Amino acid sequence: MTTVALIVAAGSGSRSGSAAPKQYAPVAGRPMIAWSHAALSAHPAIDRVIVVIGAGQQALLAAAVPSAEWVIGGFERRDSVRAGLEAAAGATRVLVHDAARPFVPHAVIDRLLATLKDAPGAIPVLPVADTLVATDGATIARETLARVQTPQAFDAATLARAHAAWEGGSATDDAQMVRALGLSVAQVEGDMMLDKITYPADFTAAAARVGVETR
Ligand code: C5P
């Protein structure tokens, strides 16, 4: 059994306000991409970590994670995942992770891989804390919703099949593609450490979270 982790890092990160793409910007004193690369590489069940980067980002990645294995991604997130899947040919299990989520607790990976024994895919989710409203004004019962994080774990052949069959346009995660095959994706408990860094203020919040965790 071979388990490969793909870190998709080929986005522009334009909402973050940082000069370089946000995945290379410092978070708590270390380039964002270096955090998740170190955590995934250190997990005993993960055999290989491949970073999917944007064209021309080789030097940025080399400065952040000198030894990283990489491939060039594509225009949309799903194009980048597909490029990673091609590089991961021969894998039995694949974890797909957003570089925008630097802190990856090993306990979440453990939950995902344990659940993957009985499911084609597993994703980390957290409950929604806010009251939710549709943009037309209707309140939505938050108990019926969950926040989806990454890494998302899949049987590698199933995920490749899902990407090949997908006709739904832009996709913000991989689980929706697997569900489109008619398969059910299991949910495990996520972790606030995995929250995505999107806006400038998220960098400060993330650095504070690391401080709390490591004190
Ligand atoms: O834009 P968003 O934050 O949703 O992107 C999620 C992840 O997908 C990020 O880590 C980003 O770098 C990655 N991505 C990618 N290729 C793209 C677009 C996004 O690897 N074309």
A few lines on this structure:
With about 220 residues, the protein is of the alpha/beta class. The chain has seven helices and twelve strands. The protein has one domain: Spore Coat Polysaccharide Biosynthesis Protein SpsA, Chain A.
Report on this model:
The chain has 215 residues and is an alpha/beta fold. It has a single domain, classed as Spore Coat Polysaccharide Biosynthesis Protein SpsA, Chain A (Alpha-Beta Complex). Helices cover 32% and strands 23% of the residues. It contains seven helices and twelve strands. The strands form three sheets. Strands 1, 4, 5, 6, 7, 10, 11 and 12 form an eight-stranded mixed β-sheet that branches. A two-stranded antiparallel ribbon has the order 2-3. The protein has a two-stranded antiparallel ribbon with strand order 8-9. The site of cytidine-5'-monophosphate has 18 residues, from strand 1 and helix 3. Cytidine-5'-monophosphate (C5P) binds next to strand 1 and helix 3. It catalyses: 4-CDP-2-C-methyl-D-erythritol 2-phosphate = 2-C-methyl-D-erythritol 2,4-cyclic diphosphate + CMP; 2-C-methyl-D-erythritol 4-phosphate + CTP + H(+) = 4-CDP-2-C-methyl-D-erythritol + diphosphate. One of its GO terms (molecular function) is 2-C-methyl-D-erythritol 4-phosphate cytidylyltransferase activity.
